[in-house]
Amino acid sequence: MEYTHETVLLHTAANELNIQPNGTYVDATLGRAGHTQQILAQLTDGQLYAFDQDADAIAAVKQNLVPFPQNLHLLHTNFRNIADALAEVGVNSVDGVLYDLGVSSPQFDDSKRGFSYRFDAPLDMRMDQSQDLTARTIVNEWSFNELVRIFSRYGEEKFAKQIARQIERARAEKPVETTFELVELIKAGIPAAARRTGGHPAKKTFQALRVAVNDELGALEDSLTDALKLLNVGGRIAVITFQSLEDRLVKTMFREVSSTPDIPRGLPVMPDQMQAPFKLVTRKPIVPTDEEIEHNHRAHSAKLRVIERVK
């Protein structure tokens, strides 16, 4: 199957890393290598380590990047393992890390993966096909209260209770097996008037399930925590988010490490040990241009935040 994938903020994100030609960089989300190729183009003697937990992504990049760059190293693991995986190949510090947290177009467009409410498919949603937990497990085995929690917290779905109740009733008769079966239950749980506004009625619930299946927020927090420790002075981390929960987490973590403590009144000069080790490169997130959004609708919710280690 042929896939097309347009990388959001393609040039902007790589440029914000302030790449040094002989530096060591990480693309934490390889995907179909859009950002990877932008970083490689700016390296001479530098090395790039690219992560992806999706074996299909790794295989596609190996096949399509011909000749394969000698300074590109593909790591088939979740980016939450960034520190351990890099240590295994002898890398203990880096000059930049890029995260693109959007689910790649091939994952959405592959009807067998179960990510999309547009295709009828088994309830799966695993980015790492080797893991056990699937969307089917959550929908059919997690309690009513657990379903309400994830729909509310990860999908910000205000009809979470009603949707969870519909699922609970349906699975008492037989397991919910496919995406279209789930879509019908979601629609039944949302009032008709609400279904007519705000896009597809299943969008928020599907997002919540995907986040839960792949522990996306937990993985992001773990990975960013380690990436900040790995960063050399002058190095940068750039993160592209596509939903408010991710953006809020990145904003909070960046603010925590770039904020200085309260300064005692009358102190003429801030002691060096009181200065924050990081500075925000972007006080407000960078967003795509109108032209990019018109050309690539998946860019409309993207936000790019950048931080730099200064000490």
TrEMBL record:
S-adenosyl-L-methionine binds at A33, G34, H35, D52, F79, D100, Q107. Its EC number is 2.1.1.199. One of its GO terms (biological process) is rRNA base methylation. Gene3D superfamilies: Putative methyltransferase TM0872, insert domain (1.10.150.170), Vaccinia Virus protein VP39 (3.40.50.150). GO terms for molecular function: rRNA (cytosine-N4-)-methyltransferase activity. InterPro entries: RsmH, SAM-dep_MeTrfase_MraW_recog, SAM-dependent_MTases_sf. Signal peptide: none annotated. It holds the Pfam family Methyltransf_5. Keywords: Cytoplasm, Methyltransferase, rRNA processing, S-adenosyl-L-methionine, Transferase. It comes from the Bacteria. Transmembrane segments: none annotated. One of its GO terms (cellular component) is cytoplasm. It catalyses: cytidine(1402) in 16S rRNA + S-adenosyl-L-methionine = N(4)-methylcytidine(1402) in 16S rRNA + S-adenosyl-L-homocysteine + H(+). It is an enzyme of class 2 (transferase). Its main location: cytoplasm. Specifically methylates the N4 position of cytidine in position 1402 (C1402) of 16S rRNA. Belongs to the methyltransferase superfamily. RsmH family. This is Ribosomal RNA small subunit methyltransferase H. It comes from Lacticaseibacillus sharpeae JCM 1186 = DSM 20505. The lineage of its organism: Bacteria, Bacillati, Bacillota, Bacilli, Lactobacillales.
